[in-house]
Amino acid sequence: MSSILRVEGVFSGYGGNDIIKGVDMHVDEGEIVTVIGPNGAGKSTLIKTIAGLVKVREGSIHLHNKPTADLRASDVAHLGMSYVPQEGNVFRKLSVQENLDLGDWISKPGKKARLEKVYELFPPLKERRNATAGNLSGGQRQMVALGMALMADPNILLLDEPSAGLSPKLVEEMFQIICDVNSDGVAIYMVEQNAIQALKMSHRGYVLAGGQVKLADTAEALLNDTEVRHLYLGVTD
Amino acid sequence: MGQILFYGLMDGAIIALPAIAFTMLFGILRFPNFAVGTFMTVGAFIALTLNVTFGAPIWVAAIGAMAFTSVAMWLSDVIIFKAMRESHSISLLIVSIALSMIVENIIRLFYGNDVRGFELPLERPIKFAGIKFTPDQLWIIGTAIVAMLLVHALLKYTRLGKAMRATSDNFALAEVRGINTNRVIGATWLLGGALIGLAGVFAGVDLVIEPQLGWSLTIPVFAAAILGGIGSPYGAMVGAVLVGIAEELTGHFFEPSYKVGVGFVIITLLLFFRPHGLFGQPEIKK
Predict the structure, then answer these.
(1) How many A×B Cβ pairs under 8 Å?
(2) B180 and chain A in contact, CB less than 8 A
(3) B156 touches chain A (CB under 8 A)
(4) Which residue out of B167, B173, B283 would a mutagenesis test of the A interface target, given it has the greatest number of A Cβ atoms within 10 Å?
(5) Helix, strand or coil for residue A40?
């Protein structure tokens, strides 16, 4: 198995402070990898660093064996990575259709089929294709955000809290869709608050705390680890 | 009344293009660029040189002014603003005020303080439906409309225009989707500079050319952009016409010298009652 994404000894942060302090991790082809950890652990900073929005101070990141630590986020996107931020993940003033078109900015061939596919995954978007994205409900905005990322035909998706702000039923649906996307061969790296649900559908997981990887194991092992259950999954048994 | 509306339209045609440039630059860089007025002055003086010194017809001079102002504004970004991307918008505003003073004095250095004008063939005013106007004025309004239609076509139908709208809407997301926002910023400065240079020529035709030409237009330009909803190019177009008409009505019913205050009054009223302007969307605060 070869790694799509390899993060080695990465330090990064804002201003003068390092938030990420020497992280090693990797995502293999076809995998779903979930990162869990307490608030302030640096989960969002790490995902932004991988996406190219936060500068890498030290260490290296490789995407398909190409070093990306010094690249702009737009260049990383051209290498097949699609990142969905937790907040501000749609173009609010543009229509749903325009948002999805922008998802295809890199313009790989086969746009039409991908658009069909996105509308198939998210039927409400087809009905509201001309609506302004900012006027949609939270759930529908999340669909636009994920749909936009899929329009780029990525081989790895970076998802920051894909279930944030969704109703329990929609959370369920969103996770199902993520699984479907994964079974089409797209590797998934995600950060989730719904840690138990997320780990259940994942192959492997990382526990991040204080900007460092505390534990790395299969998702199943993490779910069964007493300490992880107590400290990070909020289970009292 | 028709006459007043016509003059209002005329004022609107002069401030519309810089208002569009101002609002687009704000949308992407998130700071109010005070130097907009001064770069109009730059455009007027470059056109003056081409027209009076070199004898070029005014439309050739206008194209030269657009090209020069475009590059000058882009250079202001490369030399000054680029290094300050992470700075607070107020710092950038102050820097842009300083820049406008520097540029104004460079103009004085080359041209002195004299009041000048283009060499245009004298034309008799035409009277139509009770409204008196000169062919020059019609040209200005017509050219402004064409320029606005071109901006519209650019934003709506071209890849660059879509990138501009996306970047203005959500800078980080545009970058993440693969848009090189650095190039979008550069293109916006170039486009904004061209619009501002052209408007400087309009102002030079309609008013007189002197180093402070742009100063009196800066506030109406701000007012038009804010009235239309900052960041919205279409709002700026409508805002410009409304500000122009408000100015002329004020001049007619009160005194022409009050015209300069109209922009301030509009800005003040908006900040009280509708801070996001007529067509802007309220900022979402978390």
Answers:
(1) 69
(2) yes
(3) no
(4) B173
(5) coil
Contact: B169, A91; criterion CB under 8 Å: yes
Query: Counting beta carbons within 10 angstroms of the beta carbon of residue B271, is it exposed (0 to 12), middle (13 to 18) or buried (19 or more)?
Result: exposed
Tell me the three-class secondary structure of A193-229, residue by residue: CCHHHHHHCCCEEEEEECCEEEEEEEHHHHHHCHHHH
Q: Which of residues 203 through 232 in chain A touch B, CB cutoff 8 A?
A: none
A135: nearest CA in chain B?
A: B281
Res B286: pLDDT: 38
Q: Residues of chain B with pLDDT > 90: what percent?
A: 72
Question: Which residues of chain A from 6 to 35 reach within 8 Å of chain B, CB to CB?
Answer: none
Sequence-distant (6+) residues with CB within 8 A of A109 are none
Where do the H-state alpha helices sit in chain A? 43-51, 73-78, 96-103, 111-121, 123-127, 138-151, 168-183, 195-200, 219-224, 226-231
Answer left, alpha or beta for residue A83, where phi above 0 means left and psi between -120 and 50 means alpha. Answer: beta
So what's the pLDDT on residue A193? 86
- Structure confidence at residue B285 (pLDDT): 46
Contact B247, B38 (CB under 8 A): no
What percentage of chain B reaches a pLDDT higher than 70?
Answer: 98
| Contact A101/B at CB under 8 A | yes
Instruction: Please name the amino acid found at residue B284.
Output: I
What are the average pLDDT values for consecutive 10-residue runs of chain A, which has 237 residues? 89 90 95 93 94 94 94 94 94 94 88 92 92 92 95 95 89 93 95 91 94 93 88 75
Both structure tokens of A162: 């894909």
DSSP-based three-state secondary structure for B161: helix
Cβ contact, residue pair B178, A94, below 8 Å: no
Q: Are the C-beta atoms of B137 and B120 separated by less than 8 Å?
A: no
Regarding pTM above 0.95, the answer is no
Determine the Cα–Cα distance for residues A57 and A14; give it in Å rounded to an integer: 10
Q: Distance between CA A43 and CA A67 in Å, rounded?
A: 21
Task: Give the model's pLDDT for residue A122.
Answer: 92
Instruction: Identify whether the C-beta of residue B173 lies closer than 8 Å to the C-beta of residue A88.
Output: yes
To test the contact with chain B by mutation, choose from A78, A91, A146 the residue with the greatest count of B C-beta atoms within 10 A, namely: A91
Least confident piece of the model among A74-78, A100-104, B18-22, B259-263: B259-263
Cβ contact B169–A103 (<8 Å): no
- Between positions 7 and 36 of B, the ones with CB within 8 A of A are none
What pLDDT, on a 0 to 100 scale, did the predictor assign at position B284?
Answer: 55
